[in-house]
Amino acid sequence: MLEDINPPPKRLRRTGSPDSSSSNTESGSEVLPLKFCIAPSETEVGCNDDYGVDNKSGADEYLPNTQTDLEAALLPIKTDNEAIADYEISKAQEITIENGATRLQHRYEQREWTKGKSSIYVDAFNLALESVLEDEAHLFDETEMAVFNHWRGLPYESQYLYVRLFLRKTSAWHRVSRLGYYQDIADMPSTVEDLRQSKRLPISPPAPQSSILTMLKSPDDVVFGEIFQFAEGLEQINTLEEASSLLLLDELKSLSKEAKVQGKNKKELLKGLYESSTTQSGLDWPQRCKPDDETSSDADPNQINNLSCRGNTRDLYFTKKILDHTGDCIRLSSAPLRLFERVHLLFYRSTEWTQKSLTTIILAKISRRNYPNYIVSRSNSIFPSRFALLEFEAALRIQFHVDSTLESPKLPIMEKLALIKSSSESVYERWKALVAEEQRKEERVYETGEGAYLRRFSPAWVYTRIIHKGLYALGRFKEYKREHELLTELLSQRLFHASRRGAWYQRKALLEEHYMWPLSPSENRSEEMQKKEWKRKALHTCEEGLEDPDCHLIYHYDLQKRITKLEKSLKVTKREQHDFGHVMLLKPEERIVEGIRIEKDIPIKPGSKDNMNSISRRGRPTVWVDDREGGGECRVENMCLSWYRNNGWKGFHCESGILRTLFGYLFYDVLFTYVPNVFQTPFQTCPLDLHTDAFYPTRASEINHRLAQIANGDAEKLIREVHDREAEKETCAIGIDWSFDLSDLVEIAQCFRGEALATVCKVMAQEYQQRGGGIPDLFLWSMERKEVMFVEVKSENDRLSDTQRLWIHVLTSAGVRVELCNAIAREVRVELPVI
Description:
Elements: H1 69-73, H2 81-94, H3 103-110, H4 120-136, H5 142-152, H6 156-166, E1 174-175, H7 188-195, E2 199-200, H8 211-216, E3 227-228, E4 231-232, H9 240-244, H10 249-258, H11 266-279, H12 313-326, E5 329-332, H13 334-348, H14 355-366, H15 386-407, H16 413-444, H17 450-454, H18 459-476, H19 480-492, H20 501-514, H21 527-547, H22 556-569, E6 589-600, H23 610-618, E7 623-626, E8 632-635, H24 636-646, E9 650-653, H25 657-666, H26 668-671, H27 695-698, H28 700-711, H29 715-726, H30 742-751, H31 754-766, E10 778-782, E11 787-794, H32 802-813, E12 817-831
Parallel strand pairs: 6-12, 11-12
Antiparallel strand pairs: 1-5, 2-3, 4-5, 6-7, 7-8, 9-10, 10-11
Helix pairs in contact: 4-13, 4-14, 6-7, 10-11, 15-16, 15-18, 16-18, 18-19, 19-20, 20-21, 20-22, 21-22, 28-31, 29-30
């Protein structure tokens, strides 16, 4: 009987793996298109027949949980204000003056201390610039190099202000009066004026324009002239829309009251103000500006009084009123801003970066941690020429246009689809040429695996994603023949977006089964024979998908289901049918665990509605009594874990923590083997391509060999070897949580069937980033049964998510036991709030 088994010691609850990808970056940071055009995770979550249109581009604001490849590869270390202050103090102590005394001592003795003469933000910004220019200066022309020289000539405080604005809403206006919290700047007005000072650039002959770049050129592209400024002033604000963006909500309400505009929030008030300005006559508004030919000789160009009266007088009146209230404002100029974005693209090997990205690499360098041994290889050939870099940037802007079009709430859906289809068609011919060129390089130039990560910076990588989006539009327009042709072309190349191949096979097979038979020549076949012919082609497509080593495991189950369905429809004889019995797809077992739930009554605030309060309550984790472990309060997962412990299981509440730790142990040598371009600094916890679809194909031989070792029962040996070598140093390797006891890991390896563990590891090797979520809550094992089990805990009203269903499919198809544990309250105790 289960009840007679002595309960083993309970494992402490763990909240997750140490490599958690969430980064608490500032939310709401607006960035220019280049920053947020990076393609999203390259594996769609679903395995549906239709295309998923991912909504991950961050069209108008920075996604707070987005990480760059470099940031994700660095150790999650303390990057808060305290860590930054420690760094800046230490740097100040290192600076010396001619007489040998430290500058810190000199300032203290002379009472000349000025805060902020060393900032981690400026240091990191300049580190990125100098690192790029050291190896990749050939990507910049004479004018751009002159801009960098002007940057070096700026005083420290001007550099500091620029960098802080660069990390904020870079295309937004900022009130100078509200920048005073930057304590590193002693004289804000003069610092602002320094950034707005006009600077002369060398006159260089115009570069020959490529027909490709001309075709890709965007109307908002900016270039340097003979004069430039690092920042712009008030004279550049000439619309009510720009001016009103500077107002706080209370200020906007006051202005809206005068304009007789109503609205419940800032968005509605702004919309009402714009509509009022454009629809109402301006005849009854004061003439606050003079005709263009009556300019005062002592006019100040920074004053709104000099705005032209060509526009709506009402618009100009409110614009002046706003700017009179806000005072001086500043915005970073577009041309140098785009140039520094390009520098960061080259340094971080990413089109996204944040304040955390800028500081993490320096803080990682000064932290006292042990990092894995690997060969650092920073390639200076990521872009072979300036033209390649400029085309990549142009491609990113087209991609941004596609993403923002899809996400726009203003456009009708069919208009969106037409624009996406047009963008896809515009890059198609160039995409074909680049794919052919890249294939030649793969065969003749690159060493084995060298090109996989670099290809992410090819315009063809971006074009492939744009064409993928275009497929969705073609399907909606029922242009199935063209969609099928593009799918065939996409599958004929293996260099770009390999992780999408499974979705392409699925869609191609669907089209062949249902839609292609009336669109192709029948060759005198009857309708029934034509349908059968295309069903055979669909069957062949599914077979190709299963045989394709780049078709990820998560797509196999759906392809197998379609094969079974097609063979039945085609009346394939039993002996010729595919046998997928080895898949062992088992339904998760259902279990009910009863317990005592604590209902903490929340007082309803005056004016709030009861139903809103109940919604808030449903969104919170439930609280239970752990009556098997002393009666203390706990979460529902821990209450269920105690039940399993009492029934002879050992285990953790760790979700992805244990699997990522096992993967880190088992693939330690594979993770840190030499691959060009993926180890850019000595402070990484993983290769840069681990979170991309380049990781698996680049190391296919090594990964498959390791999977074979695991399947043959070598997991325990591999774990012991890594633990003996690295545990004492607690080497910072991604996924590995050194607090897990070696004895527990060895027991798990003994209980985890080799083939099943290899299957789980293969899924993680193919899609490490995407498969971090959705893993069942509890991981259990029993030495007596020699078995492991995953348990997904559900309390009242909980439902399985798509990612959870996917992991249950993966685990059950590998023959791993999975249970759905439903927590039922046999008693509910209501606790009244203490007043």
